[in-house]
Amino acid sequence: MKREEIKVSVLRVGGTNCDAETKRAFEELGVQAEILHANELVRRGNLLEYHVLVFPGGFSYGDYVRAGAIWAKWIMAKLGEELKAFVNENRFTLGICNGFQVLVEAGFLPGFDGVSPYPEAVLATNFPPGYNCRWIHLKHENRGKCAFTWKIPHGKVLRLPVAHSEGRFMFAKEKEKEFLKRLCDNDQLVFRYCDRNGEYAEGRFPTNPNGSFYDIAGICNPEGNIFGLMPHPERAFYWWQQPDWTRQKQMLQYGDGKLIFESIIEYLVEKF
Amino acid sequence: MSISLYIRRKTFPLFEVNVLGASDQQLLEISRELGVGLNLQEMNRVQEFFRRKGRNPTDVELQTIGQTWSEHCFHKTFKGVIKFDGEEIDSLFRTYIAKATNDLKPRWCFSIFEDNAGIIRFDKSYGVAVKVETHNHPSAVEPFGGAATGVGGVIRDVLGVWADPIACMDVLGFGPLNFDYEKLPPGVKHPKYVYMGVVAGIGSYGNNMGIPTVNGAIYFDESYVGNVVVYCGCVGLLPLKKFRRNAKPEDIIVLAGGRTGCDGIHGVTFASAVLTEKSEEVSRPAVQIANPIEEEKLKRAIIRIRDLELASAITDLGGGGLSSAVGETAKRFGCGAVVELDKVPLKYPGLAPWEIYVSESQERMLLAVPPENLQKVLEVFRSEDVEANAIGKYISDEVLKVYYQGEKVAEIEIPFLFEPPKVVRTAEYKSKVFEEPTFEEPKNLTDTLLQLLASPNIASKESVVRTYDHEVKGNTLLKPLQGESAGPNDAAVLKPLDDSWKGLAISCGMNPNYGKIDTYWMAASAIDEAIRNNVAVGGRRIALLDNFTWGSPEKPEVLSSLVRACKACYDFATAFKTPFISGKDSLYNESPLGTVTPTLLITALGIIPDVRLVVSMDVKEVGDLIYVVGRTYNELGGSEYYRLKGFVGNTVPKVRAKEALKIFKAITRAIDLGLVKACHDLSEGGLGVAAAEMAFAGGYGMELYLQKVPVENLNRNDFVLFSESNSRFLVEVSEKAKEEFEALLRGLAYSEIGKIAKTPSLCVYGLSGDVVVDASLNDLLACWKRTFSSEV
Predict the structure, then answer these.
(1) How many domains does chain B have?
(2) What is the pLDDT of residues A167-213, one digit of tens each?
(3) Cβ of A191 under 8 Å from any chain B Cβ?
(4) Would B579 be classed as within a structural domain?
(5) Whole domain around residue B774: which residue ranges?
(6) Whether A39 and B383 lie within 8 Å, measured CB to CB
(7) What Cα–Cα distance (Å) separates residue B634 from each residue in B76, B689, B712, B717, B723?
(8) pLDDT at B262 over 90
(9) Which of B123, B184, B474, B676 could disulfide-link A235, Cβ–Cβ 3.0 to 4.6 Å?
(10) ipTM of this predicted structure
(11) B75, B135, B137, B266: the active-site residue
(12) What CATH number does the domain containing B38 carry?
C-alpha cells in the first residue's frame, strides 16, 4: 500500500481536544488524515473506508463519570457492530489518553478473548491523586506484536509527556496475576514507565506518574491492531516540543512520539 | 417589598415599579430591594427619563438599566471625572490608558479597546486576540466555581472577537495559607480553602476545554485574605480576513450555547459592591455554574461559522447577561433591538422575565446573523450538539424592545441606556512613610538565601502548575517549567502556526508590595517586569494589558493611588513604546478585613520572529560566563528581603526608562545573534534568587563576585544580593562570544560577575572578597520546592 493512500480518521465528540495535533502528526508523515465528528461517522456509515481509527485525548462528554466511560457506551451503542467489523478486518485503532480510556471502557483493550462486554481493566484515579502534566520515560516492552510500535527496538527508552488525572492502569485485584501473565504471554505489554536509564519505576512517583499497576503505560490487544497509551506521542513529535530543546547542542529533527506514528504507517506500507 | 412601590402587572411575574411617585428615599429603597445597585443620582436620572415618558418602568427596564450602568459593565470610575490635586481628570481611561496607545499609534494594532478583547497583528494574515479578566468577587464566595467561570468567561471574550483560544494564563493572589483561623472574620473563607478551590477551578476549566495554561503567578498578601485576587487571561488566534463586525438592522439575534437559569443573577452588581459577612447568603446565586464541555462545543461551532463567514457580529454573554450583550451590540452598530424572551431556552421553568434578561448563566454567545444565513448557522450548531435559537432581531430605530408571552415588558431608547450620569469623585493623596529599617548585615547570607527561596512569593509553584495542562495543542515551545528541576521560565512561548517559525511570548509583572509604598512606582515596576520577562526569552514589539484590583474608589485615598498608578501606566507605556491593547478593572475589593492592597497586573505579549532562537533560563555549560546587565540600586523598599526581616521600607524600586530601553534592545540583539545561552530576569529576591534558580534549573553550580556587580550607593553584601532594582538580567555567555556580547552592551551598566562551575553549588564572594553564600544546589532546590510541595 502506498503511503499517500493511507486514510486515518481522528474521531471527536464534545470534549475531545487533542484531535488537531494528532491529525497534524499523521499528515506530517504523508498520509491522509481527517478529523471526523462521531455524529458524522454514524451518519456516513463509512468506517471501513479508513485504515486507521484514532480516539484522541480530551475529556469526552466531560468525563463526568469514569473517564472514557460515556464515549465508550455511546460508540458501542451507535457503532458497535461496525467497529467490531473494523477490528476483525485487521484495521488499526489507536487510543491516546482519553482514547485509551475509551478503548478500555468499551472492552477493546486488553481484549483477551476479543471484545469484552464489560471492561477487563480500568484507568483509575491517579495516585497520588490529581491532574499531572509532566514528561516521563517509557520502556518499549513489545516483542513485535503491536503494529504501532513494531519499528521501535525492544527495550528502547522513549520520552513523552503525560497529562491526565485518571491514568492508573489496574486489573481487578484477584485477577492481577493471571491477567498480567496473559498480557506478557500474548505480547500485549507495550510501554512501562521507567527512568531515563530504563530502570522501571516500580510504582515510584513521579517516574510512574499515576501509580499504574506494574508501571503499565500502554497495551495492545492480542492481535496487535488495537493500541492504547496514556502518554501523548502527538505532543512529542517535533524537536521543539521537547522540554529541553534549548539545551541540545545538535537539534534533533523529531521527538520520540514520531516513532509511534511512523510504525503504524510503515506497517501498512510494508504489509498491505 | 413595600406594596405601594410595586404593582404586579401580569399573570406572569412582571412588576411595574412606582418610580414616578417615589421620594428620594423611596428611590434608594427600590434600588436596594431590586438589587440594581444604582445610587440616588442615577435613580433620579431614571425617574426623570420615565417622567418624560409619562409612565412607570417595569422591573425588566430597571434591571436592564442597573446592569448597564454598573461599575462592572460601564467602568464608571475609569470613565468618570476625578478631582485630584487641583486638576480635573476627565476619564482615567482616556487620559492615561487609551492615550498611551493613541500617542504611540502602532500600525500593528488591529482593533483596540473596541470589543471584549484587543487584537494585534501576528503576521500578514493572522491576528492575536487577548484579554485578561478579573473574577475576584465570585471566587471569594465560591472559589472553585468563581475561578472556573472566570476562565470560561475570558475564553468567551476571545471567542467574542472570532478568535480561536490557544492559551490561558492565570495570576492569583491569596492570603497567607497559614492564616490564623481565630482571626478569620465571619463570612470570610480561609485562604487555604480558597487557594485549593481556585487552583482546582482554573485547572478544571482550562484542561477540560483543551486550552493550555502556559503562564501565571501566585502572590501572597495579608490583604488578600478577605479579597482573593483571580486574574484569568486568554490568547486567541484568528485569520484577519475572517473578522466580521458589520451587523445591521434586520439581522437576526441568535443565542447559542448553554441554557439560561437562575445562576449568575446580579453578578455585575455584586462585583461592583463591597463583600460583607452576608455575601455568602445574598450573593451565592450570583456565582455561575461552569460546564467547560458546553463551551468546547460552542467554540467548535463558532470557529466553523467564522470560517464560513455566516454571521455579521458576535459577542459573549458575560456580566449583565443578555441585557448587556444585546444593548451593547445595538449601540455599537447604531441600531435597536427586539428580543422575545420566551424564545430563550431555560434550564427549568419559573424564571421571571427580568431574570431571563439579566441571568449570567455560562457558556452562551450572541451572534448577529443575516436572515439568509440563519438556517446554515443553526445547522452548524446542531451538528456540534449545541442548542441555538433566534431570539429576536436588530432594528433601525435606536430602541430596545423586549417581549414576553406577546407582551412588551421593556422599551428603552438605546442612547439613554448608554448615558448614565457621569460620576464625579475626589481623590486625595497622602504619601506613606514606613519605618526605614536599620539592622546589621548578616555575616553569612546562605541561610537568608535559603529562607528567601522558601518564601511563598518566590518558592516553586510546581505543585500548582502541573495540575494545569500546559502542553495540549502541542504548540507550547517554551514551557512554564524548565528542565528536570522545573525552573521558572520568564515567559511562555507558543508556536501558533504550523508553517511558520514565528512565536508568541506571554509574560506578566505584578508587584503589590511596592504599591504599599507608592502605586506609581509599583505600576512602573510591573510594566518593567512584564517587559523584561518577555525580552528575556526573545520577545519584542510588545503589547501590554492592564488589570486593576483596587478598593473602593469612593475613598479619596484609594482613588488617589489608582490615579497615580494610571499616570505611571501612561508614562512608562509611552517610554517603552508598548501600547495597551486591553484591560479590565475590579474595584470595591473591600472586606471586613479592610481594603485590598492595590494590585496591578501587567500582561505582556511579545513577538518572536524565529522561535529557534528562544532562550530558556537554565544554565547550560560549565565554564560559561555569567553577566549581570543593569545597575543595582539601594532600593529594597517592598522587597522580599525586607519582608523577611519584618519591614516594608520606603526605598521603592524606580524605573529609569531611558537606560532600561537601551538594555532591553541590547538583550534582544544579543539573543538574535545567538550570543545568549541562558537569560533570567532579576525580580523578587534579586540577584541571589535569580542565580540560584538558573543554577539548579541547569544542574550546574556558579561562582559569583559581588565586587563586580555594577551598583550605585550600595556597600552591603545583603543589599547587593537581594535588591530588587528593575531592568536587570542575568545572562550566560560562552567565552568565545564574550567580545561580541560586550560590544553590544558598551555604554550600559553591565559586568561579568562570575562563571558556571563544575561543583554543584552556588558560591558567592562578597564585597570584601570573603565567601558570603555557599550552598549546594540540592539544598537550594529543596528549600525552593518545599513550601508548596504538598499543598494541592
Answers:
(1) 2
(2) 999 999 999 999 999 999 999 999 999 999 999 999 999 999 999 99
(3) no
(4) no
(5) 615-792
(6) yes
(7) 40, 17, 7, 11, 7
(8) no
(9) B474
(10) 0.95
(11) B135
(12) 1.10.8.750
